[in-house]
Amino acid sequence: MLATTLMAVAGTFGIGMVIGIVVLMTAEEALLAVAKSAARDVSGSFWAGVLTQLLAVPFLVILLVACAITIIGILAIPIAALAWALALAGAVTLGVLAVAMVIGRAVAGRGTGSSERSAALRGLTVGLIALSLVWFGAAVAAGTPLVGAIARLVAVAFTWAVATVGLGAVVKSRIGVSRLSVQFGRFGGSRFSAGAAKWAPSSSTGVNEVQVPVSWQTPTPVMGVVAARRPVDAPKGTGSGADL
């Protein structure tokens, strides 16, 4: 029984590593954005995840009712339910991987002289190992009734907290995708500069942004706001009659 449980935990870790590597290779920017969002505001991400979980089923009900209004929509109900399930599962998976990366980088550090991708892979590996150790401990303690029940409860609660924080970070990062893109350099400079690599709160001004005084801004219908020319003061007279 113990060997079977340990093999199941090891298999889950292996599957998580494979999915994490695939996500890191194909959606590195999204994964790092979610990880940065979770690292900056853990409590906010947690409550956003709780709210998302509470609204998940009502949203599905509203979606199915909206599809059932028309005959064509009735035929699309299975597709809509499947799309909802896949979107929720994908968001939870991405969030868990991002929080695991944050945990791994907190435990093992970024490493000196390593690239952003290698540092992310290292943090992801260490974080998934840390999550697996919780379940390994619960599996080892399963032989003792009381201790095993407490260890299993701790493992479930810890996993739920990680998934909730990750889900909330996904929601928050997707809502603020434009702000995150500007701050992390998608629209200017390198994609992830040295300042963005430090997972710390950044200022409101982006890397290549220049603040322009509000009094010298004029709106244009196409290009947005541009700086108007400051009026030049007329030269003062010399005191002769020509000035009049």
Automatic annotation (TrEMBL):
Protein name (record): Uncharacterized protein
Top-rank taxon: Bacteria
Keyword match Membrane: yes
Originating organism: Gemmatimonas phototrophica
Entry keywords, A to Z: Membrane, Transmembrane, Transmembrane helix
Transmembrane parts of this sequence: 6-25, 46-77, 83-107, 119-143, 149-171
